[in-house]
Structures are given as structure tokens and as C-alpha cells.
Automatic annotation (TrEMBL):
The keyword Hydrolase applies. SMART domains: Pept_C1. Pfam families: Peptidase_C1 (PF00112). It comes from the Eukaryota. One of its GO terms (biological process) is proteolysis. It comes from Clunio marinus. InterPro entries: Papain-like_cys_pep_sf (IPR038765), Pept_cys_AS (IPR000169), Pept_his_AS (IPR025660), Peptidase_C1A (IPR013128), Peptidase_C1A_C (IPR000668), Peptidase_C1A_papain-like (IPR039417). This is CLUMA_CG011022, isoform A. Keywords: Hydrolase, Membrane, Protease, Thiol protease, Transmembrane, Transmembrane helix. GO terms for molecular function: cysteine-type peptidase activity. Belongs to the peptidase C1 family. The keyword Protease applies. The chain crosses the membrane at residues 14-35.
Amino acid sequence: MHSDNMHFTLREEIIIYTGIFVCSLLIIPVVLLSASLKHPDVHNLVTIADLKLRQKILDNFFEIIETKRLQTKEANFSGLSIFRNFTMTDFEEFSSSPKKLPRKYLRNLWKKRDKSVVTKVRNQYKCGNCYALAVIETIESMHAIRTGNLKEFSVQQMLDCNDSEMGCNGGDSCRLLSWLLTTQTIVQSNDDYKSSKSLEKCESVKETSTKIKVKDYLCDDFTNREELLLLYLAYKGPLIASVNALPLRNYKSGIVQNYKSNKSAKILNHAVQIIGYDLSGDSPFYIVKNSWGKSFGLSGYLNIAIGGNICGIAQRISAIIL
């Protein structure tokens, strides 16, 4: 832990941060419902006994979340959908579900604290490029966390230059991250690599002061361990998630929480960015940034309940290190 360049496995990071994270959760009213549990002084060093106690607190925390989730009113799906003229076939073609999912990747992560920074909501229109949008938006966030400079990067470059995906016909965020890491491609800014309405020939990298490369990434299943997603969001930054978008087409407001079935979780056809969470209410939720324009949902955002792998949100998570 003496070097900023030292790599940590996900398991090591969990051990390092769990104590800090749980102590912060103890401040939140919903966790204080577990009043019978006596937590140690937050200034003490984390011991094995502390970790066991805090894991018990986490377990109770998610039991409370599940109870409150079932008691909370479902989201409003009466919005005027941008997909109102789409047939089911049209919508399935619009989604970016890859033909074949690659194997899971679990790579090292760097130890670094973060803050929430996000760029504007984009609109993918009829291009199934949400996998590239989610990757670029998370790169933008992680770059801003590292440098303090919020800058837009090129989605078009991801479509033009990556032969392993299908451009506007769909792709996979994990596979795109693998390509970025393997090739050490410099991710160019929007100013250096302009957007287009169609696929173009891959342009050469321009001389620019912004030299962004993916140094590491994680792609894994966090079903039944969503507390780790809260941990990452709290102390590192936004995440990429694959979800079942079929129930979300008419979303208007509220918290999506009644799509917990295994069938729902297995149909992962859309990529989004999880930028944070809200634990203040009776039904804690993820704050999710979508790519269907500002007219969708809550000015382009939606809320998905924490716990239960709602819409498959925890099943295929990606994280990026720059």
C-alpha cells in the first residue's frame, strides 16, 4: 500500500474498504433500524471481529432494504415513450445485446477515492450503441475524478475503430473494454474525433494533450452481493451495468422494483451507467443514467431498487481504471 501504482485484487479491496464503508452506512437512518447491533468506534483499526460484525450489519441492511422495497409503490410507467411506435422486433433490434457473451474478466483495481462527476445525457436514437456510450461515459467520469476536468470523449471512435463489435447493431461493454486494454488505444475527445450519423473509416490519433487509455478493468457478476456495488460507487466511481430494458420503455418516474424474476435477469439487452445511489428513503435505489435522451424518465435518468438484482442490474457489472 506504499505505492500509488500498486494493484489490488477485488478481494483485497473489499477487506480494505468494507470497514470504512459500513461505518458510513451506520450513519444512515435506514441502517440505524438495526439498533441492537453495537458497532465499534469508527476510529479504531479494522479487526477480523469488526469485519464479521459489519458483515452482519450489511446482511441486516439488505434485509431491511428488501422489506421496504416490497412496501414501496412501484415506479410510474405511464410516460409517453420514445418507443411508442416501435414493435417488439424493432425494440429488440434497437437494443445492443451481443450475439455471444465473452467469458467473465476479473482484473486488478487500483486503490483510489472518488467523487461523482458525470457528463450530459446523450441520445442514441435508433443506433444500438449503448454499450459504447456506457463505456465512454464511465471513462469521462473516471477521467474527471482523476484530473478534476470533466471532458467529453468520442463514442464515434469506439464504433469506427473496434472491429470486434457491430457498431450500431449492438455490442458488449466488457468486450469493448478488453479491446481498449489489449490495444492500448488512446481514447480521443469529441473535439478530436467528431461524431457522425454512420460508421466511418477509423481515423488516426491526433496530437492532443489528453492521452487517455484504459489501464485496467473489471467485468463480473455481483448478483447476491450488491453491497459491493455500493462500496465501489461510494469510494471509487460510476459503474457500467447491463440490464433488461424491456420493462423500462415506458418509465416515467419512481423506483423500479418489481422485476426481480430470473427471466428478467437473463435478458440483458441494454447498457447503462450507475452514477450513484440514494439510501435516504424507505426503498434505497441506484441512480441510473440512460442514453435515450432527456425526454426519458427523470430527465434521462431512472431509479432502480437496490437488492434483488432488479432488471438484472447486478448481473453484468463493469468498472474502469484509467
